[in-house]
Amino acid sequence: MYKPKRYSINLLKILNNSIIDLPTPSSISTWWNFGSLLGLCLMTQTITGILIAMHYYSDPQTTFMNMVYLSSNVNTGWLLRHTHANGASLFFICMYMHTGRGLYFSSYKMSSTWIMGTMILLMTMATAFLGYVLPWGQMSFWGATVITNLVSTIPHVGDQLINWLWGGFAISKPTLTRFFTLHFMLPFIIMMMVIMHLFFLHTTGSSNPLGLNSNLDKLPFHPYFTSKDSVGFIMMMFIFIYLNLSHPFILNDPDNFVPANPLSTPVHIQPEWYFLFAYAILRSIPNKLGGVIALTMSIMILTVMPLSEKSKFSSKNFYPLNQLMFWTFILNILMLTWIGAHPVEDPFIIMGQVMTCLYFSFFLSNPLTSQWWDKTIG
Question: Can you give the pTM of this predicted structure?
């Protein structure tokens, strides 16, 4: 009699190969800590989000006061809300640092890992935007109005899409219900994408500061790098606790402490600080459709990096001109963030347009400069 084979998955072995005995380049530095810090941020956001969802009502008439009730009447509800709100900012700080490290040390040469990471960034940005709308404050409402109206620029189907997204002809209760449902679901999708990201990473191996082949110079992940990650965890938790207990509102928009009023438009509509650079790029294009394309390409252009880079060495340590260009690029992003927080008026309009051109020129000039340097020293 035929008996089917039974396949068992040894979870302890998988965990051992993924965390304990994982071969890791011995030269990686503190810049590689942000990957594990992102995992901690994701778990924090998911747990606090589930707890907040137990008290949330997706009704424009009561949502704002319900959030006030959570903060003032539910035991430790204030801490729960501050942790979730400030955790989003901490999440993006770690994510931008993680992406910047990948750009500097050319981690994008591991194309599958890099592209999956870019998709995670996009999903995280979408999740954060949806979550920003849910408190139903003044800036939440008008931010949702401005951003969702961008969908109407899609040729032929834009109006139908925006009506589906709103659940009607204006932002109202169906919109809030849709946004809450998507905001609750997306973190679990992000978790699955993170697992795929780690699978690709463990398949290709980690990059290293020298950008050289490190197959002969590897150490087990534990205890050499778990100790480094533990220090990073402790430092981040101290900063996070200090932020939540001493300055819980420093990263929040004051207008969002006012209930949403469709009849009163804020003087200056702007998103959260971690979207300001992209918002400045959107505003710098006079054409609405062109602005949407520029906004999308500001993130999607990261997926082109594995195809454009043909340099001999991965690390920018061997390319002084590229180092200068990279730090100029970082300064440019900071300037775009500053411009995005200001009204659309002179001189911020022309400054935003110049900075937008410099932003996209980095992705074109960076690989060309690397190839020119290879030929020069070769």
Answer: 0.90
